[in-house]
Amino acid sequence: MPSPRRNAEGRPLGASVSSSSSSPGSPAHGGGGGRFEFQSLLSSRAPGTDPTCARLRASESPVHRRGSFPLAGTGPSQAPPPPLPEEDRMDLNPSFLGIALRSLLAIDLWLSKKLGVCAGENSSWGSVRPLMKLLEISGHGIPWLLGTLYCLFRSDSWAGREVLMNLLFALLLDLLLVALIKGLVRRRRPAHNQMDMFVTLSVDKYSFPSGHATRAALMSRFILNHLVLAIPLRVLIVLWALILGLSRVMLGRHNVTDVAFGFFLGYMQYSIVDYCWLSPDNARVLFVLWKQQ
Fold first, then answer.
1. 69, 95, 158, 165: which could join 283 in a potential S-S bond, CB 3.0 to 4.6 Å?
2. How many Cβ atoms from other residues are within 10 Å of residue 202's Cβ?
3. Contacts of 13-22 spanning 24+ positions with Cβ under 8 A
4. CB neighbours (10 Å) of residue 197?
5. Closest by CA position to 5, among listed 21, 19, 15
6. Roughly how many angstroms between the first and final C-alpha of the chain, as a whole number?
7. Are 215 and 141 in contact (CB under 8 A)?
């Protein structure tokens, strides 16, 4: 009887084939190895372990689309941005007073620019500018001071000297108060103004209040109360004060609110002068001291 063929290891050839076919991992063993490979393939393609599927699910998330919150585990948490400084924050609830003041300032600047028709030679009313500058000299403080001192020196009655001494006191008070307020407020003159004014001092570069307007209101009220004048002259003095105040805006020297506050301040200055009126005896003493010097 012929002997079976053996493999290289000395085992029968049929035994090796049967043993290899009956191994647990072979398909001949009932398909156990095929099922294992199929399960491994399914587990590797599972949605929870596939990075591509994870990225797709993350991109489809509504939270990720809105960009409201970062994905967990993508990186270290970022600290919130530091708060803005107080001056850089937007005031979303301004006060009523602030809104009113800003609106008034905007209207003041717009109206002052519209009324500055004589601010330059090329303005719409530039031909009237020399007349307005002559009117400007009539309300300057230096001519009024020099004229009062001259009349006081030439006066020969104590009643006239009393009035002139109080007028001198009123002019000095006006110059002092206007210079003090201008130095405190420091409001610049309008941008369309030309600095060609008559005899300016250090505080004359500021605009608030108008010294010509204060002087016009003060002098008109002083003259109307202490000089006996006819009706036409009284009307002429009132018109001079009003036109002088208007000319300050037309020349571009001041804004409207500068002139309005100047009229109010000049009106109140006369009330101070009238309350502190120098009596004839005090005026005589001051006049004698002034003459001795």
1. 165
2. 9
3. none
4. 17
5. 15
6. 168
7. yes
pTM over 0.70: no
* Highest mean pLDDT of the ranges 60-64, 79-83, 193-197, 240-244: 240-244
CA–CA dist 180, 186 (Å, integer) = 10
Token pair of 238 as six digits: 């009132």
29 counts as catalytic: no
**14 pLDDT higher than 50:** no
pLDDT digits (tens, 9 = 90+) for 244-286: 999 999 999 999 999 999 999 999 999 999 998 888 777 777 7
The type of residue at 145 is: L
Q: At 137, which amino acid appears?
A: I
The tokens for 78 are 């970022």
Per-residue pLDDT tens for 38-69?
455 445 554 445 555 545 454 444 444 444 44
Q: Which of 108, 115, 128, 101 is nearest to 209 (CA)?
A: 108
Q: Over the chain, what is the mean pLDDT?
A: 76
* Catalytic residue chosen out of the listed positions 64, 192, 212, 226: 212
Is the bond into 12 cis (omega within 30 degrees of 0)? no
Residues 182, 188, 193, 198, Cα dihedral to 10°: 30
Taking the C-alpha atoms of residue 52 and residue 264, their distance in angstroms, rounded to an integer, is 81
Quick count: other Cβ atoms within 10 Å of Cβ 16? 14
Are 243 and 135 spatial neighbours (Cβ–Cβ below 8 Å)?
yes
Residue 168 CB contacts under 8 Å (≥ 6 apart), including other chains: 145, 148, 149, 152
Q: Which of 64, 140, 226, 254 is catalytic?
A: 254
Tokens of 153: 């020196």
Burial track 264-290 (b if 16+ CB lie within 10 A, e otherwise): ebbeebbeebeeeebeeeebeebbeee
Q: Is 254 a catalytic residue?
A: yes
CA atoms of 40 and 238, how far apart (whole Å): 108
